[in-house]
Amino acid sequence: MTTETTNIFGIRAIIEAIESGSSINKIYLQKGLRGNLFYELDKVIKQNKIATSTVPVEKLNRLSKNNNHQGAVAQISPIEFFDLEELLEKTLESDKTPLFLILDQLSDVRNFGAIIRTAECTGVNGIIIQKNGSAPVNAETIKTSAGAAFKVPICKVDHIKDALFLLQASNIKTVAATEKTENSIYDINFNQPLAIIMGSEHRGVNPSVLKMVDYKAKLPLFGEIASLNVSVACGAFLYETVRQRIK
Questions:
Q1: Less CB within 10 Å around the terminal CB: N or C of the chain?
Q2: For each successive 10 residues of the chain (247 residues), what is the average pLDDT?
């Protein structure tokens, strides 16, 4: 499988790619695009909840190498995404304690890649991301992950809360990494079926998600800077899980 993100261009070609079930990261649309074919594309995009971005024509020219893009370019993911329900069922059937990682609209591809790499090293069963508002799995993500993106199952869901409902219904506890708590990471029992939730670089875990989790935990900080890089914080949470589980 190639590590390069494939770009396809032309409205009809993108419609057919969507309808064939291709894993599309994002669709770039030209500002002011109109017409019946565009409205057909817009309908299919909304039905499939695909992330879009409105951009100047110059960016589309670069993405398509000045080919006839008709005002639309789509980036197809270089990996196949897993179905969360199927992955969960398979994980629960194994004799190992489940460990999932939920990324609540992480936006930086390098952070995403670094987290995937650490997740693979710590035995994470699957990474869950939201379809919209999340960093894509592109060539930069895979490069930063050192190829781990091909080894750790990644699932896309419509909403993070959908994943929480499903996991909690399967008796998997959820813990959010957040500074909005008095609980230390070292107060939490990670030696149980668990899903760790990491928030976005700027906002952290969404408040509506925080209301749903079983536990909240923070890392102790002794310096003047108020927070850690999300990939570093995620590594600390995952390795605390490893520490507890290998005792």
A1: C
A2: 65 88 87 87 90 90 83 87 95 94 94 96 96 84 90 94 96 95 95 96 92 96 87 97 92
Angle in degrees, CA 6, 9, 11, rounded to 5? 135
Specify the CATH number of the domain 84-245. Answer: 3.40.1280.10
> Where are the domains positioned within the chain?
6-76, 84-245
pTM over 0.85: no
C-alpha–C-alpha distance, residues 247 and 118, integer Å: 20
Coil vs helix vs strand at 58: helix
Q: Which fold is adopted by the domain 6-76?
A: 60s Ribosomal Protein L30; Chain: A; (3.30.1330)
Helices assigned H by DSSP within 49-159: 57-63, 84-93, 109-121, 139-144
How long a stretch of residues is the chain? 247
CA distances from 71 to 32, 44, 55, 79 (A): 9, 16, 9, 25
Count of CB atoms situated within 10 Å of the CB of 202? 9
Q: Are 214 and 183 in contact (CB under 8 A)?
A: no
Give helix then strand counts, H and E, for the chain: 9, 10
Strands 6-9 and 72-76: antiparallel
Sign of CA dihedral 153, 157, 161, 167: negative
Q: How far apart are CA 29 and CA 6, in angstroms?
A: 16
